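Worked Example 4.2. Consider the chain below.
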Amino acid sequence: MTKKGFDKKLLLGIGISLFFLFLLFRKIDFNKLVIAFSEMDYRYLLPAVVVTFVSYYFRAVRWKYLLLPIKKTSMANLFPSTIIGYMANNLLPARLGEFVRAYVLGQKEKIETSAVFATLVVDRLFDGFTVLLILLVTFFTVRLPAGMENVQHGLVVGGYVTLAIYALVVAFLVVLKKRTSWTIHLVGSLLKPFPARISEKVIPLLGSFISGLRLSSKPVELFALFGTSLIIWATAIWPVHMLLRSFGIVLPITASMFIMVFLVFAVMVPASPGYVGTYHAACVYGLMAFAIQKEQALSVALVIHGLSFFPVICAGFYYLWRDKVSLKKISETSTQQEKILE
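Applying the procedure from the previous section yields the following structure tokens:
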């Protein structure tokens, strides 16, 4: 990807964010917005922040199990690397935080970055299937107000599409692992119509990538992977539920699950760093499905986004300072690796 292309991608994301911000703030009664903030019970904020960091901690625990076939890694390195990665996701475009996260841990543990990044692909697959489970549970249990049937139908259609995509990804990874040479040859054949430089980059990358794509066969460790995935998302949904309560919105936990699914789909949409606009729109329209006024829904969205944005950034900068790590250096290295992947 050229620098010019990267700038176009960033500008597109900013444009999408501005579009959603325009949709959200037009025809807003700012007096009602101020009233909603004034009625908020701020005592919920600290517990919500604590539980959010518990979710990050269990992400590091799951990552530890994913890395076991490569190396037994230290939580003292895993947790800071996780926080730095999520901080970078909030500040850098194109989800470079995933590359930053892999690079930082690779440097700390002396592991090849491509092998570490391969574990993050599996990490995302576990997230994807857990979110699908949440979506299916939500579909069968949530009760939207009358007139919102189209929203519920749209959610399940999106779930089936996502399920199909993840099934294809898993099938490719299984075949790549079981029949590596055959799969790489097939990919090479499919890439023949394209410029040779693409094949020259992709084929060596697949070979390097598969070396890091390992999963333990021990039942205890597999159970730990699935168990931590459930804990990660339970502790991600719980803060949303607490913040709804802080605004006096009393809805069943399935409503918080419903909103979380919206938020997950929102971060998949190209946007400015920090998912500004898309994240807020997902939260607002998710809440409006439960007949919550737009002004109150927007106030909730601003707080939920702030909670997921600022604490992890502060913690990430602390770990960068403590470990004397240059964000500029690792972001430049991560950008170069992203170019190779593309």
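The chain has a mean pLDDT of 85. The chain has 14 helices and no strands. Compare this with Example 4.1 before moving on.
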